[in-house]
Amino acid sequence: MRPVRPKKALGQHFLKDQQIAQRIASTLSDYKGMPVLEVGPGTGVLTRFLLDAGHDLSVVELDMESIDYLEQHFPELNGRIIAQDFLQLDLSTLFPSTFCIIGNYPYNISSQIFFKVLDYKDKIPCCSGMLQREVAERLASGPGKKTYGILSVLLQAWYDVEYLFTVSEHVFDPPPKVKSGVIRATRNTRDTLGCDEVLFKTVVKTSFNQRRKTLRNSMKPLLGKDCPDYSLPVFDKRPEQLSVEQFIELTRITERNLKPST
User: Fold this and answer.
1) Are 113 and 105 in contact (CB under 8 A)?
2) Would you say 27 and 184 are in contact if contact means Cβ atoms under 8 Å apart?
3) Strand ranges (DSSP E) for the chain?
4) What tens digit of pLDDT does each residue of 65-101 get?
C-alpha cells in the first residue's frame, strides 16, 4: 500500500519521531479508562501509543487516504474511525459523558479546535496535543505578555494551560516552516464565571480589537463615549494587562452599564 501523501490544503505535517509521539500520548496518562478522541491521526504515529496505553480511543479524520491507511494498519479502530470534519461534529452525540481530546493538530484549524473545545468545556476535562508553537504559546500565555490575547483569556477562564515542550520542524514530513509546541489544558474548578458568559466573550474580543489602546478607548463600541465608569482604574489598563478575573469584573461593569435605567 502506498504511503499517505501529506496535503497542504489540510495542513498535514506527519510526525516521524516516535519518542515525541510517546511523550504527547503520555499527556493523557491520568485519564486512563476515559474515552479519548484523537483529531487528525494521519498515519497513526500518535494513535499507536494511545492504543498501547490502553485508552478507549476513537479518531476523527477527513483525509480518505489516511482513513484507508488507518483501516489497514489499525484493526483495533474498527468502527471507531469518524470520517468527518472535526469542526462540524456534534460531540455530545458521539460522547454522552466526559471525554478527552488529543492530536497533532492541523496548523490551519488549531485555534478553531480550541474554540470548539470551549463549547464542550463541561464534557472535556483535558485537551492536549501539538500545534504551531506561536499558537501554543498564545494559549498558555499570561497577562503582560505580547502573546496574551483573546483565546488565552477565553481558554484560561475554564482551563489551566501548560506549555510542555517545543518540537523541531525537522521531525515532520514535510517539515513545516515553524517550530511546534505541545500543550495540555486541564479543566479548572470554575463552575460559573459569575457574569454573563456571552457578554464575557464579547468584552474580551472587543477589548483586544484595539489591544494597543487603553480600555477606555477600546471599549467604546460597547460602552459609548461617556460611560460614567470610565473613571475606574481598570479603564487605564490595556487588555493584555488584565487577568481572567479582571476581565470578569470588566464584564460585570459592562453589564450594569448596558442595563436600561429604570
Assistant:
1) yes
2) yes
3) 14-15, 35-39, 56-60, 81-82, 100-104, 126-132, 159-167, 172-173, 180-187
4) 999 999 999 999 999 999 999 999 999 999 999 999 9
Q: Helix, strand or coil for residue 13?
A: coil
Per-residue pLDDT of 218-243, as tens digits, reads 999 999 999 999 999 999 999 999 99
Cα 255 to the chain's mean position, in Å? Answer: 27
Helices (H), 157-214: 197-208
Cell of 58: 476513537
**CB–CB of 57/47 below 8 Å?**
yes
Q: Which of 17, 27, 19, 16 is nearest to 163 (CA)?
A: 27
The answer to whether the pTM exceeds 0.90 is: yes
Sign of the C-alpha dihedral computed for residues 86, 196, 155 and 202 taken in this order: positive
Q: Provide mean pLDDT across the span 187-196.
A: 96
| CA–CA distance, 25 with 45 (Å, rounded to integer) | 10
Q: Is 192 exposed, middle or buried (0-12, 13-18, 19+ CB in 10 A)?
A: exposed
Distance CA 199, CA 197 (A): 5
For residue 262, the tally of other CB atoms under 10 A from its CB is: 3
Phi-psi region of 79 (alpha: psi -120 to 50; beta: other; left: phi over 0): left
Q: What residues form DSSP beta bridges with 166?
A: 181
Gap between the Cα atoms of 139 and 28, Å rounded: 18
